[in-house]
């Protein structure tokens, strides 16, 4: 039998308690990140009242987090390719927790903006690095599913945000909305110290014995049946991590596709979801009722993720993503146009389209995070993922400003029609420029030799 590299051995280890622990510890941080971001949709109204903000000030509060996320995503990706996934993975969650605590304590509008940027630095940095680490440690046959399940923790954070909003925030005020997730996130950061470094990163840095030791740890967690006595064989190394590799050879097309994908998905997500409670309030619902409506509709995110996790290893990444983007586009249009021109809106119908919007949009998000790190070699995988996420965060900065500007100009139905058009363009980019990665190892999808 031919000698295997230890990353090839890692690819064939079946899912075991090591992988589930990795998923849970990664996902809990993801959950608190989501809770913080979605909490903004519930807190903008009381924040506006306390600091006496106009529409521009409210937009600044919403966009400050995404400014931090833009910087954090790009910087953390580069740092993770230079110094390791695990260290950056843990540090970003600590930074996020500090930013959340400072948000809760902010005495002025200006300090709140600074605190939101700090929270965004950690949040934006953690997500692409966490996806990279889990992707590199997951077996080939389950890699896509593991990342979609990781992203599903965003749904739990969204649900938690709704629970906190209608319980804690309603009773104690908006500051407790930020504070309630900061300390648990800090504890998760502490627990993450037990997770190992990616063996693929270690091998790329020439630390083959350490990489082999991590792979053997994963094998032992599966019962030890796959442990080998053969000498460790290291995979090929690129030996460099230049950001220019993102535009070399076959990776240029992938980079263009990912940048369009991330920008379109992030802009439409934040342009829609941060403002749904306000849009519902504008249609006659009370603030409490609109928050409850939004919270209940987000429950559909959970089956959205799990259906995408099932399809991503059957249909593949590309066509599952295209299908869910199209579903999001149709749902956005129907939600924005439902009941317009009528004095009596059927809330049941409106709820169905809001739930379908959550179902398809968050399912698409799961595939985006699964697809992105697969398309680059180990030497620039975190960099490529981080930069793509950073491009997306430009959409996150624009989105919160775009909706309150568009709604007075072209009404809710026109605004959501525009979001539908952006989602259709995004789906077309994936269909035309994307390539399938299902069932292939990371080294087959993006061999280091081609990046060197």
CATH fold node name = Growth Hormone, Chain: A
- Uncertain runs: none
**What is the count of structural domains?**
1
First and last CA, distance: 29 Å
Order of helices and strands: HHHHHHHHHHHHHHHHHHH
CATH architecture: Up-down Bundle
CATH homologous superfamily descriptor: MFS general substrate transporter like domains
Average pLDDT for all residues: 88
Description:
It contains 19 helices and no strands. It has helices at residues 6-12, 17-51, 55-83, 85-105, 109-137, 143-151, 153-172, 174-191, 199-204, 208-221, 251-273, 276-282, 287-298, 301-311, 317-337, 347-374, 381-433, 442-445, 448-451. Helix 5 crosses helix 16, helix 7 (153-172) packs antiparallel against helix 13 and helix 12 (276-282) crosses helix 13 (287-298). The model has no long low-confidence stretch (mean pLDDT 88).
List key phrases describing it.
mainly alpha, Growth Hormone, Chain: A, 78% helix, globular
